[in-house]
Specification:
The complex is a heterodimer. Chain A is an all-alpha fold. In chain A, 71% of the residues lie in helices and 0% in strands. In chain A, helix 1 packs antiparallel against helix 7, helix 2 crosses helix 8 and helix 13 packs antiparallel against helix 14. Chain B has 15 helices and 23 strands. Classes of the chains: A mainly alpha, B alpha+beta. At the A-B interface, helix 1, helix 4 and helix 5 of A face helix 9, strand 7, strand 9 and strand 10 of B.
């Protein structure tokens, strides 16, 4: 048994942590491209990030695939990295993600282990002591890797120290529900950019996508060095052995939801939705769908993920108290 | 640690040194250990103590600037020593005081003999904003209105004095425990040698107290700690205590009442709450009874309490006994209810509602501290000797307009204790807040939160006014 408000805090904490870690990986891979990749590829990467966040970059629209000027690109990159990392006015920045996760954790400090709190607080203190100027001077990718490692450490600490009660289930549910939505959003952004026909110059940066999803090694093991869009998408969406795949994320979310107690609201519908999502992503998609067909399916899954989110909150948090059981 | 520039003032009792500069017997071990530390070692200890607060996020929130800011209370790493004899006096004196206060509360909301017998003026009590007529005729479980009391005790050359009793939502106990944890791990060998009494079992005692105050027939109560929320300056403490006592940490929006019972919203539906340790002021507890604009409370809570469906700790209305206008009468209350002489004295207090006290106060503003009777936290207070003539004049005007709203006290020479300031030992003024728990019996953990006025020459120890904290080591017999 857990207070509805605490369950919501843990759920959101999971979501914010996942979102922050995802953005760290996006940025770590993106700033690496600044070292030696052509301007078009760099711009492709920035577009992929902003589109997946459903966000417009600050200032004038990125001169995607038109500018070849290195200086402009690097100056733009500094601004964009700052916007996505330290900008407090950007709700999607790493700063805000981390701050919100910590704020949620602060509210449920008595519900998580003290080691989890200390770990997250330390990550926040380390992060908030830095600025874009600090990290840009040397190796910004190392900074993003370090923040992501802090968050990985937090996950490990949670895994080994948190009591496996309802609180744990909501933390897991938030984490995996967010992971599923982020993966879908990233893939849709990738497919949209490819569809725009702009991939010619950069080949769609499928290896970059695999790196972002920490799936390059797994891909190489399964398929060798030859990279094909279909295989990449199959791996990222339907391979349950890949830790960050979409199907694994929805399976984990579904598992957490099934393990949670029956809520006074529409729990059965929420569980059914999670189950449907798991079914829809499991196993290779039949009929060798085109990229457009894949995008259509992903959009339907995206809608289902949103429904799942609403149902979870309605089942456990926003339910009507009139008819709720009282003990 | 260099005590070379540690200046003793004959007018000020020093917690470590006798007036001739030799360490007091019970402080000798601490003194010798500190003297053996180099400046670098001391700085490292201080830094470890501070770092432990930062890394564990033991913070309070300060308002007033543009946005709320999370800060840590600066903790001085040098503990304050309280001898076994001194503690015995504090323990018996505070227990006596709390017993009398609870008798007073039961009486003042009951038959009010104390008013009929003229021990306190009736209009003073009934005019006190903390007096809650809604509680008339109510009997608190086991006669305990104030189950948790944090009295502020100061020491002067005349001995210990009680400066005020905090009976509403006293805070600071989490710092008592956090200070201990931080300081003892930094001064391990010394801690062991000094045979310091433990304080970490406070949570167990608090839980036992709350269980004892559960509604009749409820043997395994579900306890909730009611917090105003994350923006409250004591939120860390609320989380800490909820964890220590195994309570749910609830806000008003998590609770609702139904048929005289209180429930909280959980993921499995509504679950009954039996005991509420409330850290929300009376005013905000129940919008149906007190402030109707309160978003922090629970509609119907007071009715549930009166019907015995839930226990509220402390009871609503206890504030009347810690109001600054009632405070001067506490020694009389001890004599009246217990037939005993007070073991701990009050600070001499002028009650400005009395014309002669008002005149005396106005004539001596530059020597007195004037306080609003309903005030707390060091706000709304005039420290005469430190105020400018213009500030005193402005304050005098308010005082004349509403004399009953003020009391005045002499500027007390609070005792000093050594603190690490810029790497050297410097005397700074301190107070002491022990916590008294009352259920079926009265319990104190042997320790306290000691606040320190860290600014040189300052007498104001409140954390909201630049004060810090110290660990208090109560020595075993």
């Amino acid at each position: 048994m857990i207070l509805s408000r605490n369950a919501e805090d843990l759920y959101w904490m999971g979501r914010y942590l996942e979102r922050t870690e995802h953005l760290c990986r996006l940025l770590s891979c993106q700033v690496e491209t600044l070292v030696d990749r052509p301007v078009r590829e760099i711009n492709f990467g920035w577009r992929r990030i902003y589109d997946s966040l459903h966000r417009r970059p600050p200032g004038p629209e990125l001169a995607f695939a038109t500018s070849e000027d290195d200086d402009y690109t690097l100056a733009d990159s500094f601004t964009l990295a700052d916007d996505l990392t330290f900008e407090s006015a950007n709700p999607d920045s790493i700063r805000n993600g981390l701050a919100c996760a910590r704020e949620n954790a602060r509210q449920v400090r008595h519900r998580i282990s003290s080691e989890m709190w200390t770990c997250l607080n330390a990550a926040w203190l380390r992060f908030s002591a830095r600025t874009i100027d600090d990290i840009w001077k040397t190796a910004p990718e190392a900074f993003y890797v370090a923040v992501a490692r802090d968050l990985d450490t937090f996950s490990g600490v949670a895994q080994t120290t948190m009591y496996r009660d309802e609180g744990w289930r909501f933390l897991q549910l938030g984490r995996f529900a967010e992971r599923a939505q982020l993966m879908i959003a990233l893939l849709l952004a990738q497919l949209a950019l490819v569809r725009e026909g702009r991939e010619g110059a950069v080949g769609g940066d499928w290896p970059g996508l695999l790196r972002i999803c920490q799936a390059l090694d797994a891909y190489a093991r399964c398929h060798g060095a030859e990279i094909s869009a279909d295989r990449v998408l199959d791996l990222l969406v339907t391979d349950v052995l890949l830790p960050r795949s979409l199907c694994r994320a929805v399976e984990m979310a579904s598992g957490a939801l099934n393990a949670a107690a029956l809520g006074p609201g529409p729990t059965a519908e929420a569980r059914q939705t999670a189950h449907d999502l798991a079914q829809a992503t499991r196993g290779r998609w039949s009929g060798r769908p085109s990229l457009d067909e894949r995008a259509d399916r992903l959009r339907r899954l995206q809608q289902k993920c949103r429904t799942l989110h609403d149902l979870v909150l309605a089942a456990y948090v926003g339910y009507r108290v009139d008819g709720a059981p009282a003990r | 640690m260099d005590f070379g520039s540690y200046e003793l003032d004959a007018a000020v009792y020093d917690e470590m040194f006798l007036p001739d500069g030799t360490p007091r017997e019970h402080s000798r071990a601490l003194h010798d250990a500190l003297r053996g530390l180099s400046t670098a070692e001391l700085a490292s200890i201080q830094s470890r103590v501070t770092h432990s607060f930062v890394s564990e996020g033991i913070t309070f929130t300060v308002y007033g600037s543009e946005e709320a800011e999370e800060r840590i209370i600066p903790i001085d790493c040098v503990p304050r020593i309280v001898s076994a004899d001194e503690w015995r006096l504090l323990e018996t004196g505070l227990t006596q005081r709390v017993r009398a206060v609870n008798r007073f509360l039961a009486d003042v909301y009951g038959d009010a003999h104390v008013l009929a017998d003229g021990v306190l003026p009736e209009d003073l009590v009934h005019g006190c904003p903390q007096y809650r007529p809604e509680m008339r005729g109510f009997s608190a479980p086991h006669g305990v209105w104030a189950a948790i009391c944090g009295s502020d005790v100061v020491r002067t050359n005349d001995g210990f004095l009680v400066l005020e009793d905090n009976l509403r939502v006293p805070s600071g106990v989490s710092y008592m425990i956090a200070n201990r944890k931080a300081v003892k791990s930094s001064l391990r060998r010394l801690y062991r040698r000094c045979r310091v009494r433990e304080v970490e079992h406070y949570g167990r005692l608090l839980r036992r107290t709350l269980v004892e105050l559960a509604p009749e027939g409820c043997h395994d109560p579900r306890i909730a700690l009611l917090t105003p929320g994350v923006h409250n300056s004591a939120f860390y403490e609320h989380v800490f205590l909820a964890h220590e006592i195994g309570a749910e940490l609830v806000e008003g929006r998590d609770l609702l009442t139904r048929n005289g019972l209180v429930y909280m919203r959980t993921t499995e539906g509504l679950r009954r709450v039996d005991v509420i340790y409330r850290r929300v002021d009376d005013d905000f507890l129940d919008p149906l009874v007190f402030r109707e604009d309160s978003l922090l409370g629970v509609a119907g809570l007071l009715e549930a309490y009166r019907l015995g469906g839930v226990s509220l700790v402390n009871a609503p209305g206890t504030g009347v006994a810690d109001d600054k206008s009632v405070y001067p009468y506490v020694p009389d209350l001890i004599r009246y209810y217990l037939g005993e002489d007070p073991l701990l004295a009050n600070v001499p207090t002028h009650i400005c509602r009395r014309p002669e006290d008002l005149e005396l106060t106005l004539d001596n503003l530059e020597n007195l501290i004037v306080k609003q009777v309903g005030g707390s936290g060091g706000y709304g207070m005039l420290v005469g000797p430190h105020a400018t003539p213009a500030e005193r004049e402005a304050y005098a005007k308010e005082l004349r307009a509403n004399p009953a709203g003020y009391i005045s006290q002499p500027v007390l020479e609070l005792s000093s204790a050594p603190c690490v300031i810029d790497g050297r030992a410097q005397p700074r003024r301190v107070d002491l807040r022990p916590f008294v728990l009352t259920g079926r019996e009265t319990r104190l953990v042997p320790g306290a939160f000691s606040r320190v006025a860290l600014r040189e020459g300052s007498l104001v120890v409140n954390s909201s006014q630049g004060g810090g904290g110290k660990d208090v080591w109560v020595l075993d017999e």
